[in-house]
């Protein structure tokens, strides 16, 4: 099937994921000593929350560091909550455009801010953009994609996120030696991508499924077929058909009409069900318990297995492993491995299926976590300091075989995530919810995702000090095993099926 317009739309919509990944990639290189934070031997000005100056750095305790790193996620949670109430009113396209504006404003404010509170504000605005963009992207891509490439394209959104991470790690490595100023240049680079995202999205149509949903009239409850003119507004029908033809360029007219009829029929049935129950908001979501358990369960387990926190603090983790002098470059290598693993998933997701890739990915993560727990337990300090937690990061050492084991295990860990949880969770979420609640359901899943991500990132530094890196990785291992059990019991296989077929099974 010729889908060139689908691919073109995907590129602009997925740029929101690129900017999300970029923020993850640069985070560890921004909120680290020598950049935003003061190095141990710093003799220059130390900034406070309101002090003004471009030559100052900041001394933040571990909880303040976690809070600053999590501000983008806090913003994303807030905007996801907004999407819960207004996503189906705004539409997927407008959500992405709002996200692009917020990305641009946030990056400019943070990069140019001469005081700490304004830096906080820039991070928060950028996070608001993440929420809008990441809520709309999987829904929009799933709704415009033919069934035979839907898995590939939704998974490819994760590939773009990883590409953003790689760009972030690379930018961090480039500006690592620009002390106290490099972090501003890292943040400013995202503004250009935000402009491309905003301008490009203006040239693509809305999702045809969303247009059908918005064109329903009050008489939809009494309609039996889409051939009747009363259930849908004529203007909405025309716009939906025009959008579908744009996405199915060079496809025979009769096939496009058949797809439209199937789409329309499913929309009428879900709207009739919603009309009969009278449920809205949270009550409407409670009508579909299985999709909610699957969707929210996947994104919660995706976070508490630790991988997102590992990404945000990759640079500091490498320093703790004894790679202080090359931590930024080592983080870049992790990003490249993630990129290759995601390419494998995108290439084979519609052949291997969702469940098989989840099992493979979680299994690799469990193996890696065992190796990481052992490796970090044999660290030592090159100076005569009894408590390893008090040892400077550049003085922490590992026996060479174990140092290499740490690097290999981290690469295995993120590879497992990118084969399974990373792309597959959001792919399944974009498939299992009925159209009538898809917008609010994705908002709920996003709030669970970002909320648990905030919890992981704000507590990461403190937990590493409390439990030691070895103990923390052991905790992640327990959660990874629980994830394996959850997938085996709850997650369906959706490979090669239309959204309408999946909805029928999940709402029985």
Describe this structure in words.
The protein is mostly helical. It has 20 helices and two strands. Helix 3 (92-112) runs antiparallel to helix 6 (182-188) and helix 8 packs antiparallel against helix 9. The longest helix has 53 residues, at 438-490. The chain starts with a helix and ends with a helix. The model has no long low-confidence stretch (mean pLDDT 79).
What is the secondary structure topology, with strand pairs?
Layout lengths: L3 H27 L31 H29 L1 H21 L3 H29 L2 H28 L7 H7 L1 H12 L6 H7 L19 H14 L5 H25 L3 H5 L3 H16 L2 H6 L1 H7 L6 H26 L1 H23 L3 E2 L14 E2 L2 H20 L1 H12 L5 H53 L8 H8 L2
Antiparallel strand pairs: 1-2
Helix pairs in contact: 1-4, 1-5, 1-6, 1-7, 2-3, 2-4, 2-19, 3-4, 3-6, 3-7, 4-5, 4-19, 5-15, 5-18, 8-9, 9-10, 12-18, 12-19, 14-15, 15-16, 15-17, 16-17, 16-19, 17-18
């Amino acid at each position: 099937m010729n889908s060139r317009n689908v691919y073109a739309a995907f590129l602009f919509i997925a740029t929101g994921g690129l900017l999300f990944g970029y923020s993850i990639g640069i985070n560890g290189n921004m909120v680290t000593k020598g950049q935003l934070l003061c190095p141990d031997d710093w003799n220059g000005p130390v900034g406070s929350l309101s002090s003004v100056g471009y030559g100052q750095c900041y001394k933040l305790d571990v909880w303040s560091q976690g809070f600053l790193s999590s501000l983008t996620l806090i913003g994303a949670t807030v905007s996801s909550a907004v999407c819960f109430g207004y996503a189906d009113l705004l539409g997927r396209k407008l959500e992405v455009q709002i996200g692009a504006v917020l990305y641009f404003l946030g990056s400019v404010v943070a990069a140019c801010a001469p005081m700490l509170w304004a830096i906080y504000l820039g991070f928060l605005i950028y996070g608001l953009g993440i929420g809008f963009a990441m809520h709309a992207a999987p829904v929009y891509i799933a709704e415009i994609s033919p069934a035979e490439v839907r898995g590939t394209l939704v998974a490819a959104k994760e590939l773009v996120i990883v590409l953003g991470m790689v760009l972030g790690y690379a930018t961090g490595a480039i500006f690592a030696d620009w002390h106290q100023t490099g972090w501003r240049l890292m943040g400013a680079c995202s503004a250009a991508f935000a402009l491309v995202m905003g301008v490009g999205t203006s040239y693509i149509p809305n999702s045809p499924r969303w247009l059908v949903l918005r064109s329903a009239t009050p008489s939809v409850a009494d309609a039996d077929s889409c051939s009747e003119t009363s259930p849908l507004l004529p203007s909405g029908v025309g716009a939906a058909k025009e959008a579908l033809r744009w996405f199915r360029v060079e496809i025979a007219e009769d096939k496009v009409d058949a797809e439209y009829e199937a789409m329309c029929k499913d929309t009428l049935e879900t709207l009739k069900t919603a009309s009969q129950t009278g449920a809205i908001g949270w009550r409407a979501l409670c009508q579909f318990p299985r999709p909610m358990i699957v969707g929210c369960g996947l994104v919660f387990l995706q976070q508490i297995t630790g991988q997102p926190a590992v990404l945000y603090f990759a640079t500091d983790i490498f320093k703790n492993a004894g790679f202080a002098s090359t931590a930024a470059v080592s983080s870049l290598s992790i990003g490249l491995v993630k990129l290759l693993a995601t390419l494998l998933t995108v290439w084979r997701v519609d052949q291997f299926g969702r469940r098989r890739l989840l099992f493979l990915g979680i299994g690799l993560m469990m193996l890696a976590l065992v190796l990481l727990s052992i490796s970090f337990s044999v660290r030592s300090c090159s100076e005569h300091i009894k408590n390893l937690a008090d040892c400077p990061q550049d003085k922490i050492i590992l026996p060479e075989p174990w140092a290499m084991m740490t690097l290999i295990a981290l690469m295995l860990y993120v590879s497992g995530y990118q084969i399974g949880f990373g792309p597959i969770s959001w792919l399944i979420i974009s498939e299992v919810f009925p159209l009538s609640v898809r917008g609010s359901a994705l908002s709920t899943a996003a709030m669970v995702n970002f909320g648990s991500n905030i919890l992981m990132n704000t507590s990461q530094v403190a937990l590493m000090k409390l439990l030691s890196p070895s103990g923390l990785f052991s905790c992640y291992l327990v959660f990874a095993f629980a994830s394996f059990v959850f997938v085996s019991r709850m997650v369906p296989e959706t490979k090669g099926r239309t959204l309408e077929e999946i909805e029928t099974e999940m709402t029985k």
